[in-house]
Write a structure and sequence with these properties.
It is a single chain. By secondary structure, this protein is mainly alpha-helical. It has two domains: 20-88, no CATH class; 98-159. 91% of the residues lie in helices and 0% in strands. It is built from seven helices and no strands. Helix 5 (99-125) runs antiparallel to helix 7. The longest helix is centred in the first third of the chain and has 34 residues, at 16-49.
C-alpha cells in the first residue's frame, strides 16, 4: 500500500511544474480567446462587406505571429538557461544537469548491491528463499524505489 501511495506521490510531484505552467498560461489563453472573438467579429464584418480574401490573409498573418512568438519563447528559455551557466565551469554545468539521473542511478545501484548481499547472506546461512525475499524486499524499500522511479520517468511523461 505504501509503495502505491509513494508511486502516486512521486508521479504527481513530477507533474507539479507542468501544472504550474498550465496555471500560468491560463491568463494568456484567456487573452487569446478574447482576441480570437474580436477577430471573428471582424471577419464576419469583412464577410458582409465581401472582403473574405482579406480575412484569410489576416488569418495567415496571425498564424505567422503565433509561430514567431513560440520561437521567441523557446529562444528566451534557452537564453535564460545559458545565463545560469555563465561563470561556471563545464563540469559544474554538467553536474547540475545530471543531478536527477545520478541520484536515481546511485539509489538503484545501492538497492541492487544491498539486495544481492542480503540474498547471498540468507542463502549462505540456510534461510528459506521465501523468508529471505520478505526480509530483503521490504515494503519501505519498494515505496522509496517506486517514488524515485515514478518521479524520474513521470517527469518525462508530463514533458511530452
Amino acid at each position: 500500500m505504501l509503495s502505491l501511495v509513494s508511486s502516486l506521490l512521486g508521479f504527481a510531484s513530477a507533474g507539479v511544474p507542468r501544472l504550474l505552467d498550465i496555471w500560468q498560461n491560463k491568463s494568456d489563453q484567456k487573452h487569446e480567446l478574447a482576441l480570437m472573438a474580436a477577430q471573428r467579429e471582424r471577419e464576419l464584418a469583412l464577410a458582409k462587406e465581401g472582403f473574405i480574401a482579406q480575412a484569410q490573409v489576416e488569418m495567415i498573418k496571425t498564424e505567422q505571429i503565433e509561430m514567431q512568438t513560440q520561437a521567441q519563447e523557446k529562444l528566451a528559455i534557452w537564453k535564460h538557461d545559458s545565463k545560469l551557466a555563465e561563470g561556471g565551469s563545464t563540469w559544474v554545468i554538467n553536474l547540475r544537469a545530471s543531478v536527477r539521473p545520478v541520484v536515481t542511478y546511485i539509489f538503484v545501484g545501492l538497492l541492487v548491491v544491498v539486495d544481492v548481499a542480503g540474498i547471498w547472506y540468507a542463502y549462505s546461512t540456510g534461510v528459506a528463499f521465501a523468508e529471505a525475499m520478505e526480509l530483503v524486499f521490504s515494503s519501505e524499500e519498494m515505496a522509496i524505489l517506486s517514488a524515485i522511479i515514478s518521479f524520474h520517468f513521470g517527469g518525462r511523461a508530463f514533458s511530452k
